[in-house]
Amino acid sequence: MSKVSRYIVNIPPILLSPFRKSRGRFWRVFRLTILDRYILRQFLGTYFVATLLILAVITMFDVTEKLDAFLTAPISETLFDYFASFLPYFANQLSPLFVFISVIFFTSKLAGNSEIIAILASGVSFKRLLRPYMIGAAILAALTFALSNYIIPPTNVKRIAYTNKYVKNYAIESGSNIQLMASPGNVVYMSRFENYNKTAYRFTMDKFDGKKIVSRLTARTAQYDSTRQYHWRLYDYMIRDFDGMNERVRNGHTLDSIIPIEPKDFLISIEDQETLTTPQLTRYIERQRMRGVANIKGFEIEKEKRYAATAAAFILTLIGMSLSSKKVKGGMGINIGIGLVLSFSYILFSTVTSSFAINGLTTPFIAMEIPNFVYLLIGIYLFRRVSR
Question: What is the pTM of this model?
C-alpha cells in the first residue's frame, strides 16, 4: 500500500461526514417521493388533456374560417403541410395558457377534496409542496424551449407557403428603391426587384475604401440563382475603377458574380421570423444590422419572445398553485375563472409590451421580460400570502 493510499484510508470519519451529508442531501433533492409523482402525474396529465381539448376547439374554428381553401387544396397538403404545423404551432403559442389552466384545475380539485390539507397536516411544508410543481414546470419549459427554438420553425415554412397559396398571400413579391450593404464597404442599390423571376433592374454596387469610392458596377438587370447561394448573373454590365484622376472602364454582356445578398435579405414578410430557428435568427439579425436594414424589430421580438415563453411556465405555475391551493366556497369554478382572466391578461400584456419595442420605446428584451417581471412579483406575493 502506498503512502497516499494509507493516508486516505486513515482519514478520520469525522472529516468525511460533511461530504457524506452533502451527497445525501443531493440525492434527496432529486429523489421523487410518492407525493411528487402523484402531483406530477396530475399536472402533466391535465396539461396534455387541456391542450388536446382546446386545440380541438381551435381546429373547428379554423376549419370554418378557411373552409373554401381546404376544399380547394389537396387533402394531403392540408393534413401534412398545414395541420401538421398548425397544431404544434398553436399549442406552443398558447402553452402559458395551458400550463396555467392545468395548475388551476387540478390544484383546485386537490383543495376541494381536502387533499392539500391532509398533505400539510402530515408535516409537508408549503414550500416543499411547491417542488413537484416546479419540476413539472421545468419539463414543460424544456419542451416549449425545444419546440419554439428548433422544431417548429422549419415546419412553419410549409404552413406559411400553404397559407400564401390557398388562403391569402402575405409574401412580399417585389420591392423598389432597395439599398443595403452587401458586405463592409460594398453598397448595393436596385431600382426594382421582382421575386417571381428573381431579377433586379438597374442594379448598382459601389465599393468604398473608407469614405472614398474606388469602384462602381452597374448592370441593366441582375438575376439571382436560387440553386447556388449568393450567385448573381449580371446582364449588360459596366465596371468603373477609380484611381485618383484616372478611370478604367470594363463592360460586357454577362458576368457571373458572388454578391453576399439574397432576396430574403430585403424582401421581408411579416411571418419570415417564424420560419427561422433561434441560431438562424441570431445570425440573420446580426447580418441585417451590419447591412443597415431597419425593419428587423419583428425578428428581435420573436427571438426574445421564445425565451420569455420558457420562463413563463415557472411564473404561471407559481401563481396558479398559490391561487388554487386554498379551498373556497364557490368551488373550482371561481379559481378557473380567475385563472383564465390572469392567463389572458398575461398574453394581452405581452402583446402590448411588444409594441413598445416596435415603436422604439425600449429594447425587445426589456419589452418581452416586463410581463414576466410583473407577474413574478404577483406570484411571489400570492405564494408568501398563502404559505402563511
Answer: 0.80
CA distance 93 to 329: 33
Separation between Cα atoms, residue 42 and residue 129, nearest integer Å: 14
CA 99 – CA 50 distance, rounded (Å) = 9
The span from the first CA to the last CA of the chain, in angstroms, equals 58
Provide φ and ψ at 221, rounded to 5°.
Answer: -140, 155
Q: What are phi and psi of 170, to 5 degrees?
A: -100, 0
Q: Give the C-alpha separation, 274 to 281, whole Å.
A: 9
| b/e per residue 127-164 (b: at least 16 CB within 10 A) | eebbbbbebbbeebbebbbebbbeebbebbbbbbebbe
Of how many residues is the chain composed? 388
**Per residue in 286-301, pLDDT tens?**
888 888 776 788 899 9
Read off the pLDDT of residues 233-256 as tens digits, 9 standing for 90 and up.
Answer: 999 999 999 988 888 999 999 999
* C-alpha neighbours within 13 Å on the C-beta side of residue 1: 7
* C-alpha pair distances (Å), 52 with each of 39, 48, 55, 57, 100: 20, 6, 5, 9, 15
Q: Provide the phi-psi class of 360: left if phi over 0, else alpha when psi is between -120 and 50, else beta.
A: left
Q: What is the spatial distance between Cα 363 and Cα 360, in angstroms, rounded to a whole number? A: 7
Task: Note whether 216 and 240 are within 8 A (CB).
Answer: yes
Domain ranges of the chain: 30-168+298-327+379-387, 183-267
SS3 of residue 237 by DSSP:
strand
Question: CA-to-CA distance for 200 and 263, rounded, in angstroms?
Answer: 10
Alpha-carbon distance 113 to 118, whole Å?
10
